[in-house]
Amino acid sequence: MDLRAFYQKLRKIELDITDAHVVTVSNETSDGGKAGHKVEVTRSTAARSILEGRARLASPEETAEFRSSVEQARQEAEQKAESQKIQVSVVSDADLRALRSAAKAEKR
Question: What is the pTM of this model?
Fold first, then answer.
């Protein structure tokens, strides 16, 4: 392969991509690559993957779907991390008796 032609094609593809980060969809490859896997990559990585035939640019609908699923996964992870936090309060015997007596006084 002519390296000059390879890098000219690479630069052309990279110039055609307008965003700094784009979503690509993988193609099936002979070395075991699976088709349909979406990933967000830099412009240069996307250009190289496209030129080598390992991926294609995602459509605007696929990009929106991917980014919304990533956002949803992030929110779920934050909620899970928040729910795993345990808050413990240590109360002395004197404080416990005071709380119980205050509760009994309110019931009357």
Answer: 0.69
